[in-house]
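Renewal narrative, Specific Aim 1. Our central claim is that a sequence can be written position by position from structural information alone. The example that follows is taken directly from our test logs and has not been curated for this report. It begins with the structure tokens describing the chain, in the order in which they were read.
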């Protein structure tokens, strides 16, 4: 019986060095109906058949606690989208203004136009050429160029 008391004392001493969450887990396993009970009285109430297992659990936890703490995963820095994606809102603002101006100034029977607009992005000049139509739908083909950017596509507005 004295061996069981020594084991229970080792459990108590081990639990005293455990983190609060680890102690809480022990209490949920060995005193699920009274999580606020005194940990020593819970340990002393463990049936002799379960003492060895409880001691193994505490020892395993203490071994885990000896391991170096893992550093939290460093969140990868968000990469800035490529200029081809970042430039589009500025380019479309310039082209849309030019497109709608051409549409509003056109004669009734003209349903399309083309133009070129210059705009600034991140302090550098760029150009957008467009060729579009506005009869049944509003759209234009576009090409952005300047400062080693050369992209094109179609915009429906």
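The sequence written for that structure reads:
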């Amino acid at each position: 019986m004295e061996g069981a008391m020594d084991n229970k004392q080792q459990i108590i001493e081990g639990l005293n060095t455990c983190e609060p969450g680890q102690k809480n887990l022990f209490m949920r396993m060995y005193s699920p109906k009274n999580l606020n009970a005194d940990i020593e009285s819970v340990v002393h109430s463990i049936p002799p058949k379960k003492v060895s297992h409880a001691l193994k659990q505490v020892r395993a936890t203490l071994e885990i606690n000896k391991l170096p703490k893992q550093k939290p995963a460093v969140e990868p820095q968000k990469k800035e989208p490529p200029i081809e994606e970042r430039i589009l809102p500025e380019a479309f603002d310039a082209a849309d203004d030019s497109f709608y101006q051409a549409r509003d100034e056109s004669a009734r029977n003209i349903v399309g136009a083309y133009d070129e607009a210059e705009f600034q992005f991140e302090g550098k000049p760029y150009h957008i050429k467009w060729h579009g139509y506005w009869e049944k739908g509003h759209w234009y083909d576009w090409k952005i160029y300047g400062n080693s950017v050369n992209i094109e596509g179609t915009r429906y507005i």
